[in-house]
């Protein structure tokens, strides 16, 4: 039971990060005018939204209570993104990429804090998805002028 509680706690940490990512993409998208960039941001936002749902479902199946909001990380991410938005598209995309870096580091650092099926979920689903959105954003950053 103790490992299940710890697993739920770790998954909720991941969930708050994903909720923060969705909120931040939503905010950034409003400040991006390039169609290619908007399409890439939409894709990444939808990918994060999918992860939010997957993590919530996993927590519920484990008997836990999913986090409702992004917590303190979401507030910080909004402040960073808000400042980047004022500096233009390239800065906004740079801030998003840094958020993707942070998310990937969190998953990799904490993957072994969960057990069994939850660990498989993090390693086989969440980390590859995070790498996918990170790579899409990196490609976008290289194409924006």
Automatic annotation (TrEMBL):
SUPFAM superfamilies: Ferritin-like (SSF47240). It comes from the Bacteria. CDD domains: Ferritin_like. Coiled coil: none annotated. Residues 8-109 form the DUF2383 domain. InterPro entries: DUF2383 (IPR019052), Ferritin-like (IPR012347), Ferritin-like_SF (IPR009078). Transmembrane segments: none annotated. This is DUF2383 domain-containing protein. It comes from Pseudomyxococcus hansupus.
């Amino acid at each position: 039971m103790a490992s299940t509680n710890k697993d739920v706690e770790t998954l909720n940490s991941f969930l708050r990060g994903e909720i923060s990512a969705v909120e931040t993409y939503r905010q950034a998208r409003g400040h991006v005018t390039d169609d290619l960039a908007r399409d890439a941001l939409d894709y990444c936002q939808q990918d994060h939204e999918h992860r939010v749902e997957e993590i919530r479902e996993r927590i519920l199946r484990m008997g836990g209570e999913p986090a409702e909001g992004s917590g303190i990380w979401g507030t910080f991410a909004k402040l960073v993104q808000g400042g980047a938005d004022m500096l233009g598209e390239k800065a906004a995309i740079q801030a998003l990429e840094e958020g993707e870096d942070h998310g990937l580091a969190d998953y990799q650092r904490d993957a072994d804090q969960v057990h069994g099926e939850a660990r498989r979920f993090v390693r086989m689903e969440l980390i590859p998805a995070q790498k996918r959105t990170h790579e899409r954003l990196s490609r976008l950053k290289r194409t924006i002028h």
